[in-house]
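Hello forum,

I keep getting stuck at the same step: I have a sequence, I want structure tokens, and every attempt I make locally crashes halfway through. Rather than fight my setup again tonight, could one of you with a working pipeline run this one for me? It's a single chain of 305 residues.
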Amino acid sequence: MNVMEPSLTGLRVLREIAERGSFTAAAAGLGYTQSAVSRQVAALERAAGVKLFDRRPGGVALTGPGLTLLRHAVVALDALAEAERELKGLAPERSVVRLGTFASAGALILPRTLAVLRRTQPGIRVTTREATTPALVRALRARTVDLAVLAVRPPYRPLDDQTPRLACETLLETELLLAVPADGALGNRAAVGLEELADQEWIASTSNPAEPMMGVWPGLPGRPRITHTARDWLTKLHLVAAGCGITTVPPGLADAVPTGVRLVEVRGGPAERRRVVLARFPGPLPPVFAQVIQVLHREAARRPD
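Reply #2:
Ran it on my machine without issues. Output:
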């Protein structure tokens, strides 16, 4: 009987590709050439005897057998990392929870959650990383994050098409608001009509096939005039304060709005709802994860002071 004997390097490459979504990005993350990554994938597929990746526009996705191998590779690589710590005589780490979040979650939900955990659960160490929703979904699959706070828009479909389906629970339901200069033509209004936005200058993030553009009001009639692009929410808001344009924001950013910015409602179209969800890989929930999730739920539901 033939025994599958993948190399450790091959398993690390598998995990990196699963997280980053392309051979090119995995090569950059590992410090390899793309050809070296391709050779490792070819060797891994020969050892496994199955196809591990599907090539797609803009990247790759794991096949069913690839997901199976990834699940076991994660266990093996994490066990080896723990063995290395023991061999070096390092003390066992405290309970660590790796939490991923979308950008604006860091303005309110994340700091409050971490403050509560530091005060009430000092034995838990939470590490965080900010990324787009597609990147965090891949990270959950690769098990490089344990929990992810994501923003999703209707229709609320599964986060990806892979199995098993990620476990999700809703933290918060919100509606988009519009950030406008306080001293501008729209700044003295509680609400504006959708038709009034057609000729406005917008501050938006860049768009790609995996992540839609944020900052322009969805359903805006005509082609938007995007004057500035920025991914960081604080940068967008300060550009608004400087009178450089307008942008969309979730209500959770109200406390982070700088002087010179006013938040207003948009009327004349369907309500633009957003759902903040907590996602994780399915399976038994470790007690330390449950404690972090409980605090996230409580802080997401709490209104700003």
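Residues 8-87 form a domain with the Arc Repressor Mutant, subunit A fold (CATH 1.10.10.10). If your local run keeps crashing, start a new thread with the error log.
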